[in-house]
Amino acid sequence: MYVLIVPAALPFVLLATVMGLSWWEDRILPVPPAEPAEPAEAPAEAPFAPAAPAHLAELARVSTR
Q1: Distance between CA 39 and CA 46 in Å, rounded?
Q2: Burial of 34 (0-12, 13-18, 19+ CB in 10 A)
């Protein structure tokens, strides 16, 4: 009967593990120093120009005689 408890409890154990690791990451691990707030420069991008549509090769015709 105790053998049935393990598969039934496994999702809850995994959920508790993930939640515990998330808590540990938020509370225990050191926080990296905040970077100075500088306005991000917009990257210079070329305007999007769609390429010409590709021409599909015609399939070989097979006779079914």
Answers
A1: 21
A2: exposed
Which residue type is seen at 50?
P
pTM beyond 0.90, yes or no: no
Give backbone dihedrals phi and psi of 32, rounded to 5 degrees, phi first.
-65, 150
Write down how long the chain is.
65
Question: Could you report the per-residue pLDDT of 35-48, keeping only the tens digit for each?
Answer: 666 666 666 666 66
* Residue 18 to residue 24: CA distance in whole angstroms: 10
In this structure, which amino acid lies at residue 34?
A
Q: Please state, in angstroms and rounded to a whole number, the distance separating the CA atoms of residues 12 and 6.
A: 10
